[in-house]
């Protein structure tokens, strides 16, 4: 394969172009530490909001609403990873996403609930959780911390 202008091999699949390789990810510069800490807080809050909206959207337009809600969640998780350059960038919105789901799955005093026990709700929970874990395990420059590079391997 002949290299493209960016140094990546030509003819790569779409996921490989979007996700990038480990070498490309390691070459990306990271924002300053203070910027990453602010980004983690904002991403956590966005995780709460996306989870809340996703619960209503997936129930409103089944099954396309579920696909839309999962796509929004995965976009947030992957966007956090790329924004901060650390695994915590995907983990912060995932934590907010899970926290909101725990609140929404609990029954209310009058017996109402937001997230019902139907196949689209379970698919939203499963696909969002698996997608978030996949995003949090993609290769990054920093480790799980606040972006401090790990030891040389």
Automatic annotation (TrEMBL):
The protein's matches in InterPro entries, at most eight in alphabetical order, are given as: DUF6113 (IPR046095)
Q: Could you list the residue ranges forming a coiled coil in this record?
A: none
- Where are the membrane-spanning stretches? 37-59, 65-81, 88-107, 122-144
Sorted alphabetically, the keyword list is: Membrane, Transmembrane, Transmembrane helix
Taxonomically, the superkingdom here is: Bacteria
Task: State the Pfam families in the record.
Answer: DUF6113 (PF19608)
The name on file for this protein is Integral membrane protein
- Which species is listed as the source? Kitasatospora cystarginea
The opening ranks of the lineage are: Bacteria, Bacillati, Actinomycetota, Actinomycetes, Kitasatosporales
């Amino acid at each position: 394969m002949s290299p493209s202008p960016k140094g990546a091999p030509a003819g790569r699949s779409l996921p490989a172009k979007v996700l990038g390789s480990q070498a490309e990810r390691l070459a990306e510069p990271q924002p300053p530490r203070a910027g990453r800490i602010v980004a983690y807080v904002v991403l956590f809050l966005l995780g709460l909001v996306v989870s809340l909206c996703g619960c209503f959207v997936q129930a409103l337009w089944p099954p396309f609403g579920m696909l839309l809600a999962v796509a929004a969640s995965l976009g947030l998780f992957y966007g956090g990873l790329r924004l901060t350059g650390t695994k915590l960038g995907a983990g912060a919105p995932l934590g907010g996403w899970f926290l909101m789901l725990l609140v929404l799955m609990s029954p209310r005093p009058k017996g109402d609930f937001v997230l019902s026990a139907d196949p689209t709700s379970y698919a939203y929970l499963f696909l969002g959780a698996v997608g978030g874990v996949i995003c949090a395990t993609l290769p990054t420059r920093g480790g799980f911390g606040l972006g401090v590079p790990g030891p040389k391997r």
